[in-house]
Amino acid sequence: MAAMRPNIVLLLMDDMGYGDMGCYGPTPVRTPHMDAVARDGVRFERMYSAAPVCTPARCNLLTGRYAQRVGLPRVLFPRDTIGLDAGERTIADVLRGAGYATCALGKWHLGCLPEHHPRRHGFDRFFGLPYSNDMQPLHLYDDEEALPGPVDQASLTRRYTDEAIRFIRDRGPDEPFFVYLAHTMPHIPLHVEADFRGRSAAGTYGDTIECIDFHLGRLLDELRLRGRDEQTLVIVTSDNGPWFEGGTGGLRGRKFEVYEGGVRMPFVARLPGVVPPGTVCSEPAAFMDLLPTLAAWAEAPLEGCRPLDGADIRQLFRGEGTSPHEELYFYVGNSLNAVCAGRWKLHVARGPEAKDRAQMPQLFDLEIDPQERYNLADRHPQRVAELTARMAAFDARLKAERPPA
Q1: CB 202 within 8 A of CB 165
Q2: What is the pTM of this model?
Q3: Res 140: pLDDT
């Protein structure tokens, strides 16, 4: 039986699609270690990112709140002066308050000024990039020090994993830990170490994921070697859908879009003795559920957190119960584009401009049409009206709380 207060490893990839993990169906990308996590635990079929781009998706994951409430609705760039506000509490803040050692590795992308640094938001240790690997100037940071010289991006997957292993080795047997490992890949430009170049049938994109999977295997081996395997919750997922390459598993849409391919994420997790092996969860859940869920497993109080949009979904990890969400809302920037309510998903826009409302509304029954191919809006006008009203009411409440841009 796993400990009541598990260690936590949260591995987040950048722009990996729903269809790029073997346990979600046929793919030329080989992911044996990710598939083993699913086999030994749970595979979520409807886990949603709150946004189809990185900054708001990561904000939602770490704070348990819609990024629009936090004031981070769009991708941040190196010249931006905004970032994660000091009043927001992250998963790391909450867990550190309960005695966890906390570490952030890889891509941060929640602001690059000193006050936005991971060390200011609950993390004891940081090793990684402040934003996406296609932005300049690009520096690799060791805690708060920018390392000299150009970044060797091909080495990052290995170096992040080395740091994770070192952090775990440095923990005492009774010291719980939280490792947030946010890989740079497969975001473009694609880079991969020489041993994996040309190995995947899915091209360089596949090489980068197979490299990540190999190093995930190293991390899992380390947990077993240290006797921490049975007490560690391991989660593997991605921030949003794939961009120019990658598979959506047949789902419509990609990065930048709130169709399923842009926001429905691969998500697998294992916790021996707690999460039954081979569990499949088909209930809707969201990244914002992780903060209250991990806090509950860690017996960590939520005092000081601003109002959360997420909920405790430990029962879904066990394949029990139903989703705590009547609706999930999907924004592009500050434009509320879609809502998912059970089997129904309504789109009212593709973006913030008037032209983005062409051919709208679109209503899809995800139970029979998860690919969002057939618009049923004219068949169900009352449902369209009901969901449109819910969207307007939610957006009005959120705008009333939204920080100034």
Answers
A1: no
A2: 0.97
A3: 98
